[in-house]
Amino acid sequence: MNIPQSSNPRVVIIGGGFAGIALAKKLSKQEFQVVLLDRHNYHTFQPLLYQVSTGGLEPDSIAYPIRKVLQGYPNFYFRLAEVLKVNTDVNLVDTNIGSLKFDKLVVATGTETNYFGNTELEANSMAMKTIPQSLNLRSLILENFEQALLTDDLHEREALMNFVIVGGGPTGVELAGALAEIKKGILPKDYPDLDTRRAQINIVQGGDRLLPAMSEKASEKAEAFLEELGVNVWKKLRVSGYDGKLATTNTDISFRTETLVWAAGVKAVSLKGLDGEAFVSRSKRLLVNEFHQVKGFDNIYAIGDVAQMESEAFPHGHPMMAQPAMQQGENLGNNLVAESKGNSLKPFSYRDKGSMATIGRNKAVADLPKFKFQGVFAWFVWMFVHLYFLIGFRNRVVVFINWVYNYIKFDREARLIIRPFKNHFKTKE
Amino acid sequence: MNIPQSSNPRVVIIGGGFAGIALAKKLSKQEFQVVLLDRHNYHTFQPLLYQVSTGGLEPDSIAYPIRKVLQGYPNFYFRLAEVLKVNTDVNLVDTNIGSLKFDKLVVATGTETNYFGNTELEANSMAMKTIPQSLNLRSLILENFEQALLTDDLHEREALMNFVIVGGGPTGVELAGALAEIKKGILPKDYPDLDTRRAQINIVQGGDRLLPAMSEKASEKAEAFLEELGVNVWKKLRVSGYDGKLATTNTDISFRTETLVWAAGVKAVSLKGLDGEAFVSRSKRLLVNEFHQVKGFDNIYAIGDVAQMESEAFPHGHPMMAQPAMQQGENLGNNLVAESKGNSLKPFSYRDKGSMATIGRNKAVADLPKFKFQGVFAWFVWMFVHLYFLIGFRNRVVVFINWVYNYIKFDREARLIIRPFKNHFKTKE
User: Fold this and answer.
1) What is the DSSP letter of B293?
2) Three-class secondary structure of residue B35 per DSSP
3) What is the pairing mode between strands A10-14 and A104-107?
């Protein structure tokens, strides 16, 4: 892998998400040689992926080159690599570009979509966890409308314009809201020769309320906002199968749809060699102590969504969001530096800054530690917070301009099929 | 294809480039039913593709949804389709989504890369005529540097960092300049563990000067600018073969390179059924008269790069640039409207607004009809003109912001490998 020997201990970080980047930034003082591995050469700002899928933002403005984050840090190495295995007995990771010894290993691999073993669902539904996936969804949505124009079969046309989003968490809610706004503001103008009123947006939630991790008030209001936008909200309903045409559920309700977005579950991205039952939770997360050490290891840590730190306040670990990930990365970074200097370590304690979801124009819900609110003000706060946490000045400006433009013009101009998703539309390029 | 019958004559336009869009805009007054066909759902601002390849701009900001251009035009139809054949005897086009009768047909298909029959070159080199192609090149450039880090073989490493651009027209010159700036400003910071001074940028031109369509002064200055930036300029040299590793030429000079960009020739995109020898020029362009009618046809027109209108001033047709294409589209539009009203038609006459090329920061060359100039002022004019002709207010603002940012920070932040090009880096997404 061509990483030079160093007299400083080598910290290998797997994953350049919120947790991995926050950690790397704390390790910039040369106590360590740091190697960051990721299968993408960029950091993805996941909370805005749904805006890429719906043409509101360019993919490039929610991505940021990892090399640029680490520019100027001495003794830092980035490698574009896929980790194949961790050999805990000899402190070695195997990757597709070779093996690497580590003194300390930090797993920050995050989560991936969980289909709970349903391979048919996995094969036919769309996920939205990465930029390429979000772009595939963007292409598919637009292709479906192009195709809907061409058919005289009303059933087929309706299936092409019928969107089923499974999962009532923030991803599902935000995507449903954005699609509803496209239906209202853009489709009638873009497709005057199509009766776009027949387009349907459905959100299907297994539990009895949307946004179950938020307050009841937020759930209520999110549902009301979605209904105001014309979204069909289905609760206590579970999608059990999807063959690419028909989505079946645990009841006799079914949906004829060409687009099923699966946002109903995630699981930790597990690494071979680090998947022992002794230290993996039911949701495949790595069990860690308050110093982020994986159970049973001294020099292997896990932070972010992949880590499960159980405590009284969080018996199943922290929520899988950017905030806990960043705070864990920072705390581990501080501790590694402290340890190298012989100072005492700080156990992790999560400062809850609250959570938010946006449903659409002027419509958001926010649960802050001190107060909960919904509506226009929550929407402005949501935008401000997301701009603040976005990495890169240029990204912030471009995203801001897009939002202002989209708001004033009721528009989303990135509705481009750059890489067709359906075979029907593919060209050789 | 589900286009309703109309009492107005149907004009079918193939291609949503500069010519096709300019024509469509002129036909918005309901004298006709207009159907625009394109294999992409967006218009591409081709002059800026090289900035996408080199990470300076997001692809989405130089693309514009065709449906949005035509929003609100009555009796307009867009279809995402690939034209397979024109049946001139029965006024019918066959496409991958069905057949369509026309009263008038306008071919505005533009050009594609011409490898002059060299299939080995075609298979191994990169083209830069479309957004997906430009993104492939962006991925490949970045992947090569990631891979260069991994090898101990100096020859291999140098081949990965050796760029050969074949063709000394504006595309080749602008790409070479942008790569040289990346080498200087970004590589040393992004790859501190790689000796990026070994990276080479070569531009290979068959003729005896770069930018042969411009003034001698512009050619001279462009060459000087490139050399100042450290680009190796090769003139009177022709690349004759490339197996993916070694580029051979008509002399004993050869290049070991993993990246060969072929910008040495274009040919018209010809349509089956409209490729008769009687009306096709040597470069495959359709011969048209001064009213844009394809030789031998009354109701079939060609505009833009695909058309060859021979005149005393332009014995081989107009230059293949945006300006002639737009002017031809506008003139044909005006003529079609005039004809439908029984007014007289205007033969096309090209108003040369000049041509320009940018080599890098503060370095451009401009040949305007009245005066020719080079340097900082030309560079500002170049930027202003490109912003002016870019379609869409949002695109203009986003491009402008990117340029200001890139200028101030000596940076290009869109260096993202969103879709890996080399198999080595591909993941399933």
Assistant:
1) B
2) strand
3) parallel
Active site residue B174: yes
The span from the CA of B231 to the CA of B257, in Å, is 15
A253, A116 in Cβ contact below 8 A? no
Cβ partners under 8 Å of residue A317, min gap 6? A281, A285, A307, A308, A309, A310
Bridge partners (DSSP) of residue A101 are A92
Among A40, A41, A399, the residue to mutate for chain B (most B Cβ within 10 A) = A41
- pLDDT bucket at B30, cuts 50 / 70 / 90: confident
Mean pLDDT score, A289-310: 97
Q: Helices (H), strands (E): how many in chain A?
A: 12, 24
Mean pLDDT for A301-330 is 96
Q: Are A425 and B80 in contact (CB under 8 A)?
A: yes
What strands lie across the sheet with B355-360, from one edge to the other? Answer: B355-360, B363-367, B372-374
Helix axes B376-389, B393-409, angle to 10 degrees: 150
Which DSSP category does B105 fall into? E
What does the alpha-carbon distance between residue A360 and residue B244 come to, in Å, rounded to a whole number?
Answer: 49
* pLDDT mean across residues, chain B: 95
pLDDT at B53: 97
Give the containing element (helix H, strand E) for B182. helix B170-185
Q: Provide the annotated active-site residues of A.
A: 174
Find, among B83, B122, B41, B108, the residue nearest to B268 by Cα: B108
Please give the C-alpha separations between residue B262 and each of B122, B167, B179, in angstroms, as whole numbers: 8, 7, 15
Ordered by where they begin, the domains of chain B are 10-39+81-113+267-340 (3.50.50.60), 119-264+361-425 (3.50.50.100)
Full-model pTM? 0.95
Within 8 A by CB and 6+ apart from A13, the residues are: A20, A23, A24, A34, A35, A36, A37, A106, A108
Least confident of B101-105, B264-268, B277-281: B277-281
Q: What is the pLDDT of residue A139?
A: 96
pLDDT at res. A29: 77
For residue B429, the model assigns a pLDDT of 64
Residue type, B372: K
- What number is the average pLDDT over the span B110-118? 95
Q: Are B168 and B261 in contact (CB under 8 A)?
A: no
CA angle B239, B244, B248 (to 5 degrees): 25
In the block, tokens 């946490």 appear at A389
pLDDT digits (tens, 9 = 90+) for B253-275: 999 999 999 999 999 999 999 98
Phi, psi of B302 (to 5 degrees): -140, 140
Q: Is B99 on the interface with A (CB under 8 A)?
A: no
Residues for chain A: how many in total?
Answer: 429
> What is the DSSP track for A186-197?
THHHH-TTS-GG
- Euclidean distance between the first and final Cα of chain A, in Å? 32
What sign has the CA pseudo-torsion A286, A287, A290, A296?
A: negative
A97 touches chain B (CB under 8 A): yes
Q: Inter-chain contact B405–A425, Cβ cutoff 8 Å?
A: no
How big is the A-B interface in CB pairs under 8 Å?
Answer: 160
pLDDT-derived band at A392 (thresholds 50, 70, 90) equals confident
B398 contact A CB<8A: yes
Tell whether the model's pLDDT for residue A424 goes beyond 80: no
